[in-house]
Each structure stands twice: as C-alpha cells, then as structure tokens.
Amino acid sequence: MDNVDKAPLKVREATPPGGGGLLSKPQGWWTRLTDFLGEVRAEMKRVTWPANKEVYATTIVVILTSMFFGAYLWGLDLVLSGALRWLYKLLGATA
User: Fold this and answer.
1) Own/partner long-range contacts of 80-86 (Cβ < 8 Å, ≥24 apart)
2) What does the pLDDT look like over 63-81, one tens digit per residue?
3) Are 31 and 39 in contact (CB under 8 A)?
4) What pLDDT shows up at residue 28?
5) CA–CA separation, 62 and 84 (whole Å)
6) Among the four 11, 37, 56, 84, which has the fewest Cβ within 10 Å?
7) How far is CA 20 from the centre of its chain?
C-alpha cells in the first residue's frame, strides 16, 4: 500500500444559490465529464482485482453456505408448522 500513488483531491466550488446545473453552464459540461471519466479510469487502475482461484473459492463458500441455511430454514419451517398444526388440533381449531 506504500507504493500507491496518492493524487491530491480536487476541491470544487459549491454551487451558487439559485444557479448551477447543466443548463446554467453548458460550455463546461464536456470538460467536467472528461475530467470525471479520467478520474474513474485512474481509480480503476488502483483496484486490486482478485485472482481466479480466489473468486472460485469464495463462490463455492457462498453456494455451500446458501445451501446450508436453506436446509436449516426448511427444517425449521417443518418443525414450526408441525408444532402449530399440533397446537391447533389440541385447541380444537380447524387448520
């Protein structure tokens, strides 16, 4: 992290009261857009992308965890619905 280029942040002036917006300064929108896209491109170069092996491993973990919790909630639903059915039957309600 020490070798990361830390560019100074650009400070933009606040929008004047009652003004601003795309229609008030139509001549500067292209410059602002190209500045923004240039900043996005520079920031994307700093992103550390995960390796394929890491993506594969975390995908497997997510799938297995989802399956585990799905089975757990299905079992819990069966137990609770059976308990409610028994309670209704005990109290004489029709379900």
Assistant:
1) none
2) 999 999 999 999 999 999 9
3) no
4) 80
5) 32
6) 11
7) 31
